[in-house]
Amino acid sequence: MKILAIDTSTFVSGVCIVEDGEVISELNINQARTHSETLLPMVKNALDYSHLTLDDMDAFAVGKGPGSFTGLRIGMTVIKTFNEVFNKKLISVSTLEAAANSVMEDSKILALIDARAERSFGARFERKNGKLIRLSEDDLFLSEDILDFLKNNPNYLICGEINEDLEELINESEIKINFYNNKILSRLAREIALISEDKFLREEFDEMTLAPNYVRKSQAEESRM
């Protein structure tokens, strides 16, 4: 089984191709430009390195968010376009689930992604006997609420992003946190691809209803309130 996964939910553009659980090609770029400028060339390079084509894939996978509004729209548009041409299975994966999936040790996990304006997207998971279990839905939290949670739940392992505001609050409170790996954003496409292999056999996805999980209102919508 071959799966091409892309992720554009954060400032990192990621493309990964896996075959039967093995990563055979992976590219990540920390963006100075927009995802729209780099994503398609990255896909082409990943395929060329693997000596494969889009038609060789059994499925296309994409990070559905939460994350950057513009990035999520770009990722969804690209993956749906691939599907229109090649008619493969489409799979979407939570960005926060992908971040949590990179944690290999058994533990309770709080996955975070910067949502700016003193907020973070977050969800709780648990890695137990090697299996990742979701404990809460993806949601949007104020930094103060995350700090209160960490004070009351010091056993949680943090992965993903800690934004500047939350980092400052943590430093001021002098609480000790367990942070897993600050390179996780560069692994999201890989984790999406690996999760999608399992989803491929267990779930059905309708490309007509495939949509980003924004969690919050866009800036344009907020401006109209």
Summary tags:
225 residues; alpha/beta; Nucleotidyltransferase, domain 5; 6-stranded mixed sheet; 5-stranded mixed sheet; disordered C terminus
Written account of the structure:
By secondary structure, the protein is of the alpha/beta class. It folds into two domains: 2-96 and 185-218, Nucleotidyltransferase, domain 5 (2-Layer Sandwich), CATH 3.30.420; 99-183, Nucleotidyltransferase, domain 5 (2-Layer Sandwich), CATH 3.30.420.200. Helices cover 36% and strands 31% of the residues. It has seven helices and eleven strands. Strand 2 (12-19) and strand 3 form a beta hairpin. The longest helix has 18 residues, at 69-86. The model is unreliable at 218-225 (pLDDT under 50). Residues 24-149 form the Gcp-like domain. It is an enzyme of class 2 (transferase). This is tRNA (Adenosine(37)-N6)-threonylcarbamoyltransferase complex dimerization subunit type 1 TsaB.
SSE map:
Layout: E1 2-7, E2 12-19, E3 22-30, H1 35-50, E4 59-65, H2 69-86, E5 89-94, H3 95-101, E6 107-116, E7 119-128, E8 131-134, E9 139-142, H4 143-152, E10 157-160, H5 164-173, E11 178-179, H6 188-202, H7 219-223
Parallel strand pairs: 1-4, 4-5, 6-10, 10-11
Antiparallel strand pairs: 1-2, 2-3, 6-7, 7-8, 7-9
